[in-house]
Amino acid sequence: MTVVIPQQQEFNTRREFEVVGTRVRRLDGFEKVTGTGKYVADIYLPGMLVGKVLRSPYPHARILRIDTSRARKVPGVRAVVTADDTPKRYWGAFIKDQPVLAIDKVRYVGEEVAAVAAMSEEAAEEALALIEVEYEPLPAYFDPDDALAEGAVLIHEDKPNNIALVIDVERGNVDEAFQNSDLVVEDTFKSHLQWQAPIETIGSVAEYNGGKLTVYMNTQTLFMARHRMAWALNMREGDIRIIQPWVGGGFGGKSCDDNNAMICALLAMKTGRPVKLINTREEEFLAGSRPRVPMKIWCRIGFKKDGTITAKHIDVIAENGAYSGKAPAITGVAALRHDTLYKYTTVKTRARLVYTNRIPTGAFRGFGNPSAEWAVEQVLDMGAHALGIDPLEIIKKNAAEPGYVSPHGNRVTSCELKQCAEMVERMMDWKTLRANKKPYRGIAVGATVHVSGKRHFGDYDGGSAVIKVNEDGKAMIWCGEGEIGQGPTTALCQIAAEELGVPFEDVEISRADTDLTTYCHGAYASRLTYIAGNAVRNAAHNMKQMILEIAAEMLEAAPEDLEIKQGRIYVKGAPEGKSTTVREVAHARLFRRGGKPLVASGDFDPDSVLQDATRYGNESGAYNFAVHAAEVEVDPETGQVKVLQYCAASDCGTVIFPTGAEGQVEGAVAQGLGYTLSESLLWDDGKPVNPNFSDYRIPTAGDMPPLKREFADSYEPTGPFGAKGLGELSMDPFAAVIGNAVFDACGVRIKQLPITAEKVYWALRGRERQSSAEPGVDES
Which ranges of 219-326 would DSSP assign to H, the alpha helix? Predict the structure, then answer.
């Protein structure tokens, strides 16, 4: 990958910070690069057994009989479990429709039917082969349109028409707004399944002693995992402990919508021995991490002659797969969030989440945004071309601004969307490229909005932290948010150090453990820097006040007259005068009659609301924005698309941890590249035929285009030192930007992902055969 930065970007030019915005060393870096950090596969407990899962070969079938008698006789086998060994409780993040092990019938190829714990992997595999299951195949549906058809067999008997969720919202009079528009553009676009594909697959280690279940699992959301496990296994949450080891990437796929840890726990409770259950790569594709929700989106947008957006109408059909997981929330995001990006008041949305007999879909970086942007940003581009207006000017003209309230009630506090547009214009040398267009080369832009946390798991989207200052003056943060590789623990320590006035090296943070830390939601919705950062800052503020009160006694001064810098405490404006240190304060606080340790807590719950039945309400405390641009070249003989350069401008407020922020943009662009151009699974009767990295091609460093990325000079007043979220932002517009650029290069618009050379080739041949057809007609 080539990262091109026109000038080394400086951070914190408007505000002076000591630690925030500096390029500190990642806290987890040494252990990870030296191989000393322990991932779940590295955990070995005395007497540990190996777990294996028997999976359904059918996409939809009734289970008539399961016979495990022969499997139980295999030497070394310690347990064989089926649904009869579970409480038979259905579970799910939003809709409780998923069993731990299949009850009565299976609904997709790969669904868990039985599991084995044995002394060795070989014994477990032998036992799986001896489990006899008699199935009665049922009609199966692999496309939402087929599942919606009249007379279709129900995948879930209690879900009429195979629909899990319907959203139907109208703000204002859309028909009237379209009638008063100078131009109305509409089209239909399809997105596809995309797997998170972290190097580390989902896995867990469970042990059960004295009524206490302890599970080591590579989850993004420890406390949510505990809650769902307690429900599904009919246990008290306090009887379950979740410990997060190092996690080899998550991207939404490790947010606890799968059954791996529950089955592992079940086997541990059944045997009384520790059990390890790690997905193979094939299992990951079959039934592990829940891939991105595919959608078919019809979008209509109205414009005035000057490019002002008048109204938007969108219809979404989202594929749920066999069970719901996070897909209900993802569908809502795809249907509604984009209306926070541009200023218009009139919008109509219908969205249906449909069950099929494929793998359950779920959270992936960007949630529902990439699918929505794939459609909406292309329709905006079509409007710009039809009006003869620069697409970048369409973004600038309609861009949200501070104080904007979306049609659905999202309140924008900080927004530098126009600044982001100006940044990509400069980085791309946009005007020059437009004025000197070369054959089969195209440039395009796209914009996006994302959240910094999302209030949808009950009426709480907060976080909490505890800070203890040890006798040597070093601060320890106790926090249960966790670390999955994106670097939040480093950023949280920077925030604490900045607020406390101590060196970064004097702050450390605990590992995430539900028994040892206060409740935290975990890593999703780009929330950790904003929400956990605020909680940590508040804890640090409270700790600072305690330190200053003790120091005031020692220095015979008022607490408000003191300040702390680099761990030294002195009267403001007199750094050379009488002083003390945080270490000396910690000693003075503890080592005296009635002494106490220095411990303070902090919490934060943003000013957002749980959306009402009409989907109205401010969903997040802060919103982050981005504008991206790309230049591509299309080979007219082969249809091959090459990304010549890519530019990303991000508004994430104050950049706390620059190296981590830059890595988030680069990683999201890499995943966007795969989503758009190369990643795809082939299916045969509901079963993926290429569940491996040889055929499912994720981008490598060699595939990456030259990348320019910059961060807007932005400040979020409700964020910790002005910061807000970033992690998912750069994934969102990528596919639409490339789709728009391909159209600009060769005049054909591919409307179904991925944009393969074959699709472009045949679209070009079709355009040649029908030279009178309008550019942009779907030939894919």
Answer: 222-233, 260-271, 281-287
Report angle CA 325, 190, 137 to the nearest 5 degrees. 55
Question: Who's near 454: CB < 8 A, 6+ residues apart?
Answer: 329, 461, 524, 525, 527, 608, 619, 620
Q: How many CA atoms lie within 13 A of 350 on its CB side?
A: 5
DSSP 136-200: EE-----SHHHHHSTTPPPSSTTSGGGEEEEEEEEES-HHHHHHT-SEEEEEEEE--------SS
Amino acid at position 602, single letter:
G
Cβ atoms < 10 Å from Cβ of 400? 22
* Residue 773: pLDDT over 50: no
Give the type of residue at 667: G
Which two three-digit tokens encode residue 296? 């078919």
Beta strand 203-209 pairing with 132-137: unpaired
Which ranges in 412-559 belong to alpha helices (H)? 417-428, 430-435, 488-500, 533-555
Dist. CA 721–CA 646, nearest whole Å: 30
- pLDDT category of residue 532 using cuts at 50, 70 and 90: very high
- 563 forms beta bridges with 570
Buried b (16+ CB within 10 A) or exposed e, 352-380: bbbbbbbbbbbbbbbbbbbbbbbbbbbbb
Pull the structure tokens for residue 159: 């879900």
Residues above pLDDT 90, as percent of the chain: 94
Pairing of strands 309-321, 687-688: unpaired
At 499 the three-state DSSP class reads helix
For position 769, what pLDDT does the model report?
A: 87
pLDDT at position 690 is 86
